[in-house]
Design a protein that fits this description.
Layout lengths: L4 E5 L3 H12 L4 E5 L5 H16 L5 E4 L10 E4 L15 H18 L4 E4 L4 H12 L6 E3 L2 H16 L6 E2 L2 E2 L7 E2 L5 E2 L2 E2 L6 H12 L1 H9 L6 H15 L4 E10 L5 E12 L2 E5 L6 H19 L4
Parallel strand pairs: 1-2, 1-4, 2-3, 4-5, 5-6
Antiparallel strand pairs: 7-10, 8-9, 10-11, 12-13, 13-14
Length: 309
Amino acid sequence: MRRNKISIIGAGNVGATCAHWAAIKELGDVVLVDVVEGMPQGKALDLAQSGPVEDFDGAFLGTNDFRDTANSDVIVITSGMARKPGMTREDLLEANKQIITKVVSSCVQHSPNAILVVVTNPLDTMTYLAKHVSGFPKNRVLGQAGVLDSARFRTFVALELGVSVEDVQALVMGGHGDTMVPLPRYCTVSGIPISELASKERIDAIIARTRDGGAEIVKLLKTGSAFYAPAASTIQMVEAIVRDKKRILPCAAYLEGEYGLKGIYFGVPVKLGSRGVEEVVELKLTAEEMQLVKVSGEAVRKSISELKL
């Protein structure tokens, strides 16, 4: 039986860690692509040699040639400049626009039926660009952000309450940036609303830290940005796709009127399966929550307009 083929574009920290998670979960054969000669080859070989230790099988190929990605089932795009201290995600727009345009064009040429998962920042804008360049239907182009932002929210809730992260559920919607919309009303610990366990003041502090989650790590690292959690979040999405799990996960999806937004990519809960985004889950939000969504949507639309497509 044919194994799934997962191509990961960009063999830096995020891409290589995505390959690692995909290998451990045995999601399929992995192709790691980068423009730097030798880097993807070396990382793929190193990863393959960890298989006997961790007991996973699969074929791992490092390459500089997009032809090796032919007939991929899922393509994860991590290529692009990473944020540096003092940079916003929007500062990356012009440089990453050029990179994503070239990468997506090459991927589509060799894998016209693939599902694209975009990780490159500014996330919502680059995902919109990937859809524009690929010409793929909206269900086959999506962005990773909400899983990561929700994971950060869950982590900070667990730290605040001194409980296991396994018991914390949370949802973060909106653009992947300062206007993201954490929803404490949908945050629970083993089904108990967070409002029953923490004061509004502490919840607001957790929300603020969640919004600043990526920048906090950039400041600490000084020469790079987060990669463990972004990669794990991305591969959770890939697993839902290749195993047709029908998981409800927050992803950047193309909206056509949902939540009052149209023609943009925006973080919303979706049903994720073998066809990609199989359904956008539209929640009944309060007036206050809808206002936050509106503000975030306007910020995303402004960023997309700067692509000048």
